[in-house]
Amino acid sequence: MDFHDVRFPTKLSFGSVGGPERRTEVVTLANGFEERNTPWAHSRRRYDAGVGMRSLDDMELLIAFFESRQGQLHGFRWKDWSDFKSCAPSKEVSFLDHVIGQGDGETRSFQLVKCYRSGEQCYERPLTKPVEGSVVAGFDRAALTEGVHYSVDHLTGIITFEDAPDIGSEITAGFEFDVPVRFDVDRIHTSVASFQAGEAPDVPVVEIRV
């Protein structure tokens, strides 16, 4: 799958609507009870990149980005303004934000994940598109330094330590991240509302697996 490691212009995505979706199969039994199952291990996010009244320069930027991705053909990065950090949007990223693994004395590489917790339940979401320069990590509650103690693959979200964490060590990390998406249409409708402004009301994008 072709993926362009470029982010959709954030000044256009700000104010967009969207979020996670699940697929649940519900069967109602003869006695009125239900059986529920899902074929998806992970949620999938959808957004509408449609822009309201914007300058004609913004419209040109949208069209240039769409044409460069060749419609649905190539994926790209998307900033979800409601969920783009390992912590709450109002807080600063910390290397203690999430536990991403336990040391076994041999494993050096770990996938970045974010835990969504409510009550006693926690959903761990693998994150494959961390923002470059934003990842902070450590183990046993000691902060480490990127480029010295570990490296980050910003195309896969895998962090690799120079030395394997000791057995039982708790590996933690904090980060900012993007969502890998593609356009969900092969055409964009634009309208010039005046000599200075235009609009493109419907530009859906959908998360992809990479």
Question: How would the blueprint of this fold be written?
Answer:
Layout: E1 3-7, H1 10-13, E2 17-21, E3 25-28, E4 34-37, E5 44-48, E6 51-55, H2 56-69, E7 75-78, E8 98-102, E9 109-111, E10 113-118, E11 121-126, E12 136-139, E13 142-143, E14 150-153, E15 158-161, E16 170-174, E17 179-183, E18 191-192, E19 197-200, E20 204-207
Parallel strand pairs: 1-7
Antiparallel strand pairs: 2-5, 3-4, 5-20, 6-19, 7-17, 8-16, 9-15, 10-11, 12-13, 12-16, 14-15, 17-20, 18-19
**Overall geometry:** globular
Strand content: 35-45%
Helix percentage: under 10%
Q: Strands of the largest sheet, in order across it?
A: 1-7-17-20-5-2
**Oligomerization state:** single chain
| Mean pLDDT across residues | 91
Helix and strand element order:
EHEEEEEHEEEEEEEEEEEEEE
Given helix and strand content, the structural type is: mainly beta
Question: How would you describe what is shown here?
Answer:
This protein has 210 residues and is mainly beta. It is built from 2 helices and 20 strands. The strands form 6 sheets. Strands 1-7-17-20-5-2 form a 6-stranded mixed beta sheet, with no helix packed on it. A hairpin with a 2-residue loop joins strand 12 and strand 13. The longest helix is centred in the N-terminal third of the chain and has 14 residues, at 56-69. It is globular. The termini are close together. The model has no long low-confidence stretch (mean pLDDT 91).
